[in-house]
Every structure is written in C-alpha cells, then in structure tokens.
Amino acid sequence: MTGNWQILAAVLLPLLGAIGIAATGTRPNLRETVTLATAGALTLIVWSLLPAVLAGGRPTAELFRPLADLPIAFEVEPLGMLFAALASLLWIVNSVYSIGYMRGNQEKHQTRFYVCFAIALSAAMGIAFAGNLLTLFLFYEVLTLSTYPLVAHKGDAATVRQARVYIGILLATSIGLLLPAILWIYNATGTLQFTSGGILAGHIDGPALGLLLFLCVFGVGKAAVMPVHRWLPAAMVAPTPVSALLHAVAVVKAGVFTITKLIIYVFGIDYLFAEPSAGWLIYAAAFTVLAASIVALRQTNLKRLLAYSTIGQLSYVVLAAAILKPLAEVGAAVHIVAHAFGKITLFFAAGAIYTACKKTEIDQLRGIGRRMPWTMAAFTIGALSMVGVPPTAGFVSKWFILAGAFQSDNFVAIFTIILSTALNAAYFLPIVFRAWFREENVAPPSNHGEAPWPAVLALTITAFLTLAFFVGNQPVLDLELQLVRPQP
Amino acid sequence: MQLLGLYNYWVFVVLLMIGFYAVIAKSNLIKKLIGLSIFQAAVFLLYISMDKVEGGTAPIIQAGVPDQIYSNPLPQVLILTAIVVGISTMALGLAIVVRIKEAYGTIEEHEAAAMDSEA
Amino acid sequence: MTLTAQLPALQVVLPMLTAPLVAFLRLPQLSWLATTVASATAFGIAVLLTQAVLGTGTLDYAMGGWPAPYGIALAIDEFGALLLLIVTGASTIALLAGKASLDQQIESARQPLFYAGWLLALAGLSGIVMTGDAFNIFVFMEISSLAAYMLVAGGPDRRALTAVFKYLIMGTVGATFYLIGIGLVYMMTGTLNLADMEARIAEVADLKPILVAAGFITIGLALKAAVFPLHAWLPNAYTFAPHAVTVFLAACSTKVSLYVLLRFDFFVFQGNLERHDVQFAGFLLPLALLAILVGSLAAVFERNLKRLLAYSSIAQIGYILLGASCVSLLGLTAGIVHMFNHALAKGALFLAVACIGVRLSRLWVDDLAGLARQMPWTLAAFVAGGLSLIGIPGTAGFISKWYLISAALEQGLTGVLTIVVIVVSSLLAVVYIWRIVEVAYFGSRDAQSPPVSEAPLSLLLPTWFIVIANVYFGLVPALPVDLASAAARSLLGHLL
User: Fold this and answer.
1) A168 and C426: CB-CB below 8 Å?
2) Do B39 and C159 touch (CB under 8 A)?
3) Is residue C271 in a domain?
4) Which residues of C touch A63 (CB under 8 A)?
5) Every domain of chain B and the residues it spans
6) How many distinct structural domains can be found in chain C?
7) Is A66 helix (H, G, I), strand (E, B) or coil?
8) C134 with C197: CB under 8 angstroms?
9) How do residues C372-430 score in pLDDT, each as one tens digit?
10) What are the pLDDT digits (tens) for B91-100?
11) A465 belongs to a structural domain
12) CB of C443 within 8 A of CB of C368?
C-alpha cells in the first residue's frame, strides 16, 4: 500500500464507514450520523485532490500486486476526478434523502441498506481512480455485487426475480465479454495501464479492433447500450434512493465512464477514428438513444419512464465518446455530470411523490404541483435539463456534443441529438404541464403536502445544482479540457 | 508362432476381461467382488510371468554355487505387496457388502437402487 | 543428520505411525486431539519443506539410506510442495472445523478407528505426492483409497454404503490399470524410479508397449481423478460422506491423482514418445471441455446441495485438465494454480455446508429457504466461496480464470472455443450459486420448522479462515503462482 494517501483513503474510507454503520445498526440516529460523516469526509478527501489534478498533476497509489506486472493501482486523471467528485458529492445529498425516504416509508433492513450503499461508493471510487483495466474490472464487479442487495431490498418474489435479471445481465456481460476483452488487450499489448493516446496502436488493427470495441461496449453492461439495457428497467423494483444511486451517482455512471475511459485511454481517439470497423458504435448508440426515447413515450409508470430516459441519456454519452473528436469527449464527460444532477432530481421527486401519497403512475399526477410545489418545481427543472433547455445543465453538455459532432461533420450524431431532443420534450413536458395546470383526477388517500423535509431538502439542492451548473461549469471544463490538451 | 509363444499374456488378457466383465455386468455385489478379484489376479500373473528368465532358477544365492542364472526377484516382491493390497480391498469390499445387506436386506445392486429411489 | 534433513520422511511416517496409536485410544476426544495435532504438525512440516524447496530447489531423500534407483527415493519439487500444502492444509482445517459435525455423524465408539483411517488417508496422499517410485505411488494410492472408502462409508445415510461400494470398485479398477501400466514399463526398462524410468525409456527399441503403458496409466489415473466420463463414483461419494470428510476429500483427493497423471504424461512419457503432447492434448482437451460443460449443467439442475457442489467439482477438474492440455507453460501454470485455488474455493463451500449440516439434517437447496437470517455468517461464507468459484476478481478463483483464459488465447482457433466454454461455464456457475443465494436470502422459512441458530464458533472460525484465504490469495497470489510456474517449467522440461 503505497502512494497518495487521499486516493487510498477515498477507496478505503467508505469501507470503514460500512463497518461503522454495521456496528451501530441498532441505533438508527448514530448509524445515520456515521453515514453522513463518512460521506462528508469522503467528499472532502476527494475534492482535496482537485487542485493538484487541475494543475496537471496525476497522483498515483498502489494497493496490491495480484499478478506480476498488474498491480491493483490507482491514478487520478481528469475524467476519473470528475466522476469521483460527482459521486462523493451526490452521496451526501442522497444520504440526506435516504434518511427521509427510508424512515418515511418504514423500510426494513435499513442497516443492510446503508452498509451496501457505502460499499458501492467505495467501489465507485475504485472505478473512478483505477489506474489500469484490472483494477477497474475488480471494482466494477464489486459495484455489481454490492448493489444486488440494494436492488433486491424488498425481498418478495417479484423483486427477487427482477434483481436476478439485474445481476444476471451485469455479471454475464462482464465475465462473458469484458473479461476476454481485457485478456485479449493484455495478450496483445503486454500492459493494461491507462495511457494517454491509447495502448492499442500497432498491436490490434483492422476488423479485430471493431470486434474488440464490441466486446468492450457490450461487456460494460452498466452503460446499458441496447440490447444489454434490460437490467435497468428491472432494477426499478428497488427503493427510490437506490434508483438514484443506480442512475445518477454510481452504477450507470460507472458504465459510461468506463466506456469513455476505454475509448480515450485504451483505444485512443485518433487511432479509433481512423479505423472504419469501429464505426458501428455510433449507430448502436444512436439507435439506443432513439429507441429508448420512443419506448419512454409509451410508459405509464413514472419510474419506468425515468429508467428508459436514463438508457437514452447514457447513450448520449456513448454517442459523444463515439464521435471521437476532442470536444465531443469533453461533452461526454460534462454530460455525465449534467445528467447526474438532472436525473437524481427527477428520481428524488418521484420518490418524494411516492412517500407523500404512494402515487407511481403518470396519469395520477395531475394537479400534484399545487400540493407539492417544491417537489414539482425541482421535477420541472430536472425535466428541462433532460430536454436540454437553457438555463439547465443539460444544455451545456448538448452544446459540447453538438460542437464535437460538427467538428467531424457527423450528421448521424447531429440528427440523433435533434430528434431525441424533440422526443424528450414529448414525454417530459406533458407530465410537467398536467402537474401544474390540470385538476386532480384521483382523490389522494389523505390530504397530503410535501414529503418529509430531508427528502425535500435533498431534491431542492440537486435542482439548484442543475441550475448552477449552467453558469458555474468553468471548473469542470478546465478539468476536462486537459483530456484533449496534450500533457507536458 | 510369436503370438502363441507369448501365451502368458493371452492368459493375462483373457482373465482380465473375464474379471472386468463380471465387475460391469453382474448386479450381485459378491459376484462383482469376485470379478474384481479375478481382474486383479490377472495382473498378478502378468507380474509373476514377466520375471521368468529362461533357464533361471529361484533367486537364492548359495555359497559355492557361482554364476547361476536367476529369475528376477523384484516383480515377485512387488506383487506380494499388490496381493496384500488386493486382500485388503477384498476385505473392505466384503465388509461393505455385509453392511449393505444389513441396511437394505439385499445384495443386488439394482434392488438397493430401487429402494433408494422410492425413499 | 539433523532432524530437518529427515523432514521428508517424517511427513509420511508421522501420520502413519500416529494412526495405530489413535486406533487404540479409547477416548474419542483424545483421538480427535491426537489426529488434529498430527495433522497440524504435518502441515507445519509441509510449510518447512515448501520453504526449503523455494530456497534450494528439489529435495531428494533416500529412504533407509539406499540410493536411487535401487532404493525408494522421495523427491519433492515445487509441484509436490504445493500439493503437500493442499493435502495437509485441507486435512487440518477439516479436522479443526469438523469436530462438531463429526461428533454428530459418527458414533463415539467408532471415532478412534475413524480418525485412524483419516490419518492413513493423510499419510497415503502425502506419500503419493512425495515418492519418486512408481510402485510406491501405487501402494500409497491404495493406502489412501482404502482409508478414504472407510471414511466415506462412515456417513450416516445408508446410501453412503452403495456410494462407497461403487467408489471402491471403480477406484480399484483404476489402481489396477495403473498397476498394469507400471508392469509394462518395468518390463521394458527394468526400473521403477520415475527419474530413472524417464532416462531409460530413451534406450528402449520398441516403444509400443510403452505407449500401451501410457494409455493404461492415463486411464487408470483418470478414473481415480474422476475425469469425465469416468466420474460416476464421485457425486454420491461426496454427497453421502460425513461433511468433514467431504471437505477433506474434495479439496485434495482427486487432485493428487491428477498430479500423478501429469507427472507421468509430462515428465516420464513426454520426452520419449513421439508427439505425445499432441496425443495427450487431443485425448484430454475434449474430455476437459465436456467435463466443464456437463459438470456445470448437472450442477444447475441438481437439487441436493452437496451433490450440486460435487458436480461443480467435476467441472473444476475439467478446468485443471484444460490448463494441462494446452501443453504450454501458461496452461500448465493455470491448471496447477487452479488445483490450489479450487481447493480453497471448494473447501470454503463444503465447510459452509458442514456448518449448515450441523443445524439441518436435510441438505436440499429448498431446505435453505430463509436460512440467511438465522445463520448470517455461514451463508456469507458460502457466498464468498461461491464468488471465488465463479471467479469474481479479488478472489482466488479469478486468478485461475485469468491464467486459463491467457493460456487459451495463445492457442489460436481452439483457444476461442476454449474461452467460450470457460465463459459459459462461469455463467452456469453464477446460475447455480445464485440459485442458492436467492433461496437462502429471500426465501421464507417454513412456519412449522424449528428455529435454527448460527453454527458453533469452532466451525465458523476455520470456515472464515479459508474464506479470508480465498480473498488473500486472490489479491496476493505470489505463493501458488510461483510454485505452479516453477512446477510447470519442470514438467515441460522437454518441450521448452
């Protein structure tokens, strides 16, 4: 165990937190304090790495050496820094929200919930800071396994069946496709180290490169590129804070982060751009964006709608990465953040509605804006961000992705983005409109108001972040522009 | 006449196959063990016959009788060990058959299997 | 001569001489204690021997002072040292953990004899690994097998008896095949010492009898090692043996036979028989692939917990053979590393089963419904062992998978097929492990069934020790990997 202490602390602290949470399980107030304290400390540690990385530094650390020249090692670079900073920050907000949600709904097994949550965060940190593919793969699997109990939280037969889909698809794709891909890369190049400009040049070329890209993209099932997206709607059986974790904080973000990182640091943007057999990726991503949006149009359950919306938004990131132009890569990184803020707000809102009045279907939401103004205001902001309307975060990332697409005159990407914007608007805006301007059609079980205050506080914060990102995105851009500027 | 001259190997092979047949084909556990015994005995014969040196005598060195041709004593020693192993196996096998008889009331393999599948 | 120089002899002699002593001890507690102490000492000796081998290379020891090839020589190289660690370690852990379980399953009057049998099995297995003499291997093999038959027959279910009878018949046939092979080689070379044999086959004019001998020896040992399709004895023998015995045998008995198989085919025959590597791979690779698929599929559809794990063992034996039949440095390393890692993973799983077995009398998958609430630590250990079996990174199983797929990647087109089989069977492992996890964690327990408590600490501690070893050797696998690659290098001597 050597190297930068902040990196090691970021990976190990949530694990210690998990032990602390398990130990204080019988006293809920103390347990929640441990969660919040761990989340706060983690955020401080992760954010303390930021100045060094902004200055061009690349802190490293090493944990073990399982295979001779393949250590479990970490190296902080801009993309990972962004993901870690985002995940740690959202963990705090999510914990505040979880406390309100879990208590408000009197969920069982709350200690298990918080323990698994902390382990998942540790895994997310490991993924973000991974210095080589083996490390990334290790923490990727830890993330899959630690979120399984969260998805299966309710524990009834239907939930277990859906959770089986979740773990089945994620494990099958990672063991079946990603692991052979990793070994192939290692066999061909003799290294798995993430390197600026990629490591494959001169080792694998021609159609083999396209095949390898196929193994990687579909091996990372967490990115939910169709047809390996089935797990995401299945995971909607989980409690809402878990959905927020899956969609905004850790899991799907880990997926698209992994794909972006692979494209930039393993394949190499320019190398991949020159290889025609890798061109299929942009079509797969475009198809997923459009198909997911169309499926979302037909959903009647709010959480399922959000799930399909996520699938579409994730493929935005993949699409951006697949444009293989510098500005588009920045757009991919920025969209990870922008979507996280927007989608976590939407899920918090959906969960708040469920907590307050047990409503889950879209057509039950007429007029709910008058009962829950804060929640629906936040929901509106989140929805606008998904569509990409200024002044929300979604606009910033779309701007960069489009700019990247114009750099290479990639009309497939441009067309897809425009069409899907229209589709997003078509399924989000009616909900917003009905919630504010229509009369209630279903009488609520009680004369309810807002959800418990921690939940409302959390969704207000994330809605605010969604707006703030529109104006205050400069640090993120500074960080991510390092990706495309050659390092001295 | 090379083929007939090696008749000891023919005996070995025939005995081996008779024993093996019994092991596989017989349902009666005792008969299976008898087959196993024949199977092993065939191998004993292989070892014992291989040590014969033509014109050789028992490998006992006597004072004053130099330059005798002796048969090779090593395979005999080896096979003595193997016979002991065979006897132990047989004893254990028979003991197990006794316990099977106590537990099932039969020493027919298929009958015992049928009783388990009902249970 | 100092005592250290005599360690190789002590490794076998100690358990063998303790066995009759234990048999005469009338107190079951005392006989358990003596057995455990002897086994733990044997493990200590194995550790010392491993250190010595790592330091100075192969250890040779002439029994009774007679030099090889006239006397019986013990020879311990890296391969042997690794196997010794597995055998003695498995025995010690199984004894430490198995006390509570064995007290339930073996009546106390029979326990001294049972433990004597255990020690003989231990002595036999250690002897096979260490001896450099082909006939000596046969003797030790039969000592360990006869003892193992006795141990398995100790199971409380009457089906243990029919299972063990099958085991006895097939085991004896296997050993006799081996004996025929040895006889043929002896006829042609006049020696029984493995190293001497290897050198003298080169002088043999007509190699046909040697080829026949290679066939007999390979088939005989494959029977003992439960290589598909010669595995019929294994599932029931593991299922109905006392739980602690299953832990012991599953971790090491088949692997020791595979060890002998590899030594003969690679060390003795490889350099002398033309294209023996192609014969070996051509014969065993398809069997290995079939073993992996059939074993995993059978496990998926099996409802008896122990038999499910036994079928999984058949698949895992396939993995070991698969590595070996790549006939490459990486492949052999993978196979040998997997011997070690599978012993760890399956050891953890069967120990967890032993924990459950102390509390439940029936061990079908359905009986575990909701058990995770009553026995959280046991089920957590089971999950950890299962993850190692699947090959999740961070566990020992991942290291084997890594080396296996690396070895397959070197093989070109057949390698792709191999990878597909490995991947499919890993996914099948996910299915059969996860089926149990779902039942145990999310099933609901029968209202009528009596409440159960967590397994006793004496069982849980060794179980978790092995679980932690699974994680440790998943993160820091230097020891098994170094031993295995050295072993692979010496086995492949002729082909490198």
Assistant:
1) no
2) no
3) no
4) 475
5) 2-51+70-118
6) 1
7) strand
8) yes
9) 888 889 999 999 999 999 998 889 999 999 999 989 888 878 888 899 999 999 999 99
10) 999 999 999 9
11) yes
12) yes
